[in-house]
Design goal:
The chain has 9 helices and no strands. By secondary structure, the chain is mostly helical. Helix 2 (19-41) runs antiparallel to helix 3, helix 2 crosses helix 4 and helix 4 (71-90) runs parallel beside helix 8. The two termini are 26 Å apart.
Amino acid sequence: MEAQVFDENLIVAAKRGSLKAFDAMVSFYQAAIYNHLYRLLGNSDDALDLTQDTFIKVYKNRSKIDTDKNFRAWLYKIATNTAYDWLKKQKRLPKTQEIDEAAEFETNELSLSYYSIEQINNLDLENALKSLKSGHESVIRLYYQQGFSYVEISEILQIPLNTVKTNISRAKAELLKKIN
């Protein structure tokens, strides 16, 4: 989770075309977007290129910024879509596991207890996360590392809310198996 919040007044100024405000926004979010894209792509050069592409898209679409909504979620959605579009062009988009939406959502009571967190810290967390099934890594990172809500993750990844819940539940179960 980010410790500081970007000044809402700068978002409004960037929306109106202030290059100084837009530059401040890029400076504030650039590292987080790069890290998000790096985790999706696994390649530093591609993540750098797509970080730049993301901010170009944000600048071109700055008039669409809704100051009543979560700017950070909108930015991550653009970054994620940019990565997925690039992966499709490269024909490298991982096949996602189809989830039967008609099936009743099972609440999984597995939780990452303090003990489990300690075990994960002793293991190579990054490798454990990267070994998760397609779709699971993204939701776990967005939820636990970036602090987005289920609804925000649904918007960012453009998947149904129940799919987010299912993927988080299954990812936690996978992680618990890997650490036990």
